[in-house]
Design brief:
334 residues, alpha/beta, 8-stranded mixed β-sheet, 6-stranded parallel β-sheet, 34% helix, globular
């Protein structure tokens, strides 16, 4: 039986996710319905992607009995209410990152998933790329010795994108792109909580963070540093340095298609898309989709690769970084 997907939101990321699903066998994955706040948007999306059902509200999608899992591609201030809507309707959910605006909201989402006994995963797509699978294998087998330092950066000019600059739209570099650097560090250090977090940054006039630099210290004198910026282009790579060698993830560390292990490079290409994409390497979202399918087939309620605990750790560290930098959202005051 194919995993039957419902797509929530007819925006750019939902387009790319739907294109990524097309790179997987149709006997395994099918998009059954799409929902948008405006029926015209849903119908246009459905036509473009040959989807049979288009809904003008998220509630209608939640009531559709032929959906196994919903992909939530709305902007992050709406993740909490949208996830709760679908989970209360007993739908499994793959929700875009960040899972929510802060750790309080994340806890609420996780509690709802448990209460409704549904599968939930934050769509940290990076973790499911073949290159990331290989990184975890290398680390587990001790190929680089004991890891002492992890560094990463992600900077792209986004000042022209209102979603990235406006506070009420969930703007700010940390939640949007810094999360990729942070999740990479947390993956390398096996979901361990850092012993100390030191963050400094600059904010835009709108009150959201534009550029942030963070230093993390973990147990056994292990360190990590990352920089994120929505103001400037950065080299966008990541490095794992161990006592026996290094692993470098070249540019586009958030959607990696190559690895350099002790100077030797290996390519991990993603499939070509059937339609033009909005974001680079988006067909790589196929890997997280397949992870969801495998979890559902096994009756699991979360993925071991991107667990509920992993999502909570990300949110807690992001909360502390924002506290130090001085970024406060309306959701933090509730």
């Amino acid at each position: 039986m194919a995993t039957r997907w419902g797509i929530c939101s007819a925006g750019k990321i939902s387009h790319d996710f739907t294109v990524a699903l097309k790179t997987l066998p149709s006997e395994d994955h099918q998009v059954v319905a799409v929902a948008a706040r405006k029926i015209e948007d849903a119908q246009e999306f459905a036509k473009k992607h040959s989807i049979s059902r288009a809904y003008g509200s998220y509630e209608e999608l939640a009531k559709d009995p032929d959906i196994d899992v919903v992909y939530v591609g709305v902007i992050h201030p709406y993740h909490l209410s949208t996830c709760l809507l679908f989970m209360n309707a007993k739908k499994n959910v793959l929700c875009e990152k960040p899972l929510a605006m802060n750790s309080r909201e994340v806890r609420e989402i996780l509690a709802s998933a448990k209460m409704n006994d549904v599968f939930l995963m934050e769509a940290v797509w990076t973790r499911f790329f073949p290159a990331s699978v290989e990184i975890r294998r290398l680390l587990a087998q001790g190929e680089v010795g004991e890891v002492k330092m992890v560094s990463s950066e992600f900077g792209v000019p986004l000042m022209h994108v209102s979603r990235a600059t406006q506070k009420e739209l969930g703007g700010g570099a940390i939640l949007d792109i810094g999360i990729y650097c942070l999740q990479f560090i947390c993956m390398v250090y096996n979901g361990e909580k850092p012993e100390s977090i030191q963050a400094t940054g600059v904010c835009m006039e709108t009150g959201v963070d534009e550029t942030v630099a963070v230093t993390l210290k973990f147990s056994k004198n292990r360190m990590a540093v990352f920089t994120c910026s929505s103001g400037v282009q950065l080299p966008n790579d990541a490095i794992i340095a161990g006592t026996k060698g290094t692993v470098r993830v070249p540019a586009h560390m958030w959607c990696p298609t190559s690895l350099v292990v002790n100077g030797k490079e290996t390519q991990y290409p993603v499939p070509e898309p059937c339609l033009p994409l909005n974001f680079i390497n988006s067909t790589g979202m196929r890997y997280e989709a397949e992870e969801v399918r495998q979890c559902l087939l096994k009756g699991l309620k979360e993925s071991a690769v991107m667990s509920h605990a992993d999502s909570l750790l990300l949110a807690e560290v992001e909360d502390e970084i924002r506290r130090q930098v001085g970024v406060v959202y309306s959701q933090d005051r509730q």
